[in-house]
Amino acid sequence: MIACRGIVKRFGGVPVLRGVSFALSGGRTLGLVGENGAGKTTLMNILGGHYPPDEGRMWLGGVPYVPRHPQDAARCGVAFIHQELNLFGNLSIAENLFLTAFPTVGRLPCIHRGNLRRRAAALLEEVGLSAGPDTPVERLSAGEQQLVEIAKALSLDARLMIFDEPTTSLTRQETERLFARMGQLRVRGLSLIYISHNLEDVLRLCDDIVVLRDGEQVGGGPRAAFTVDRLVSMMVGRSITRLFPARAAPVSAPPLLEVRHLTQPGMVADITFTLHRGEVLGLAGLMGSGRSELARILFGLDPFARGEIRLAGRPLRPAPRRSIRRGLALVTENRREEGLCLEAAIADNLALVTLAAHARGPFGWLERAGLRRAIEGVRGAVRLTPTAPDAAPASTLSGGNQQKVVLAKWLLARPAVWILDEPTRGIDVGAKSELYQLISDLASEGTGVLVISSEIEELFGLCDRILVLSRGEIRDELARDAFDRERVLRAALGERPRPGVLS
User: Fold this and answer.
1) CA-to-CA distance for 295 and 301, rounded, in angstroms?
2) Do 281 and 390 belong together in one domain?
3) Cα–Cα distances in angstroms (integers) from residue 381 to residues 352, 386, 480, in the given order
4) How many domains would you assign to the chain?
5) Do 155 and 126 meet the contact criterion of CB atoms below 8 Å apart?
């Protein structure tokens, strides 16, 4: 179905892809894995017509394939389902499905609404989505929006579908539904390319695997030739024997962040906890449990009706600027919309939080030399890719390197308390290992870290204590020596702990 030979791509003279070759037959799934910045998305953007290759050739269905723009790729039957969905929330499902090819009334420039609904309903039935064609997309869950993207690809008679990190915002149930639909597409003879940092899913779904590292193809072959450990070693160029850093049990330390009876109707109810210096405290719970809402309230993005927050022994009335001045940092789960100015330069993003600290004189002129030195220091601390020039837009970075920019901008501010909401979502295992070490180092220096994660293993590996939320309430609290997967899940589903368990 698709074959690539010797694909090379450079940006500003810097090689991003170095002679990548692969082939994929109809009815099969190819897994594409590699660290953030390895070149996966660039390769798929070449297939999707977003970039031309500098060298190399491609064939689609045995015919030379030279897409000059995404419309060319779509006409040839190549569909790209991005990690960040390309849907208009204020439009209906049917309007999103046929946005570039509305059925018209004869030759009149008028949309044939009846035909539009009928064709949309048939596609929705095909992908197993029960919502009606007139439903606004903004009312759909992330998993349902993924199915709309698949239906949109089917409306274009796609022969090759590229899935770029499709499960990062999905619940496990929605992920299973997506995998079932992908299996049905394979039975119909479509070819699928699946990009994911979840290596267990790659091994489960894919027939063949290609591994990229620093733009080079360092491995490839049938799924049976790979294990998770082998994939990790090939991706990062070394063996990661310990994903989570060893941490000594924290000694008794004074409270750093104290929350008492925090309540906001519809979000959280009577939340009480303490975060100590040098402690990593986890927040577990299902989607909608109130974890992210609590983080936003603590930082001052959302209000609260009752309760008290104290930071370093002093009352805190949260508001973003005040929280920053008092030493609070928030890394939100939506880095692209809330953590970065994507079209601004990398250097400008790194300076966002601490810009005022580098202003001099009555007119606030920037002391650029000191700012550059500070930026260079944090770039090294988070191991931001050295090939990314400071003047380049943040949008040019891979997802993992974008997350490193978000972390680095807060490192410049030296906060006393970090609130990390899904900090490893969409980043590779090598970047995860580096982030885990950074969290451990921060705690060792006396910083308090609050980690929100949907991955129980991540919380178990990082945290000293875990609070489990359900419907806006704390349902259980576990110390490290009492970590238990079943107990966390039961509490997340709303069960109350046994008497004497909640400390």
Assistant:
1) 9
2) no
3) 17, 12, 28
4) 3
5) no
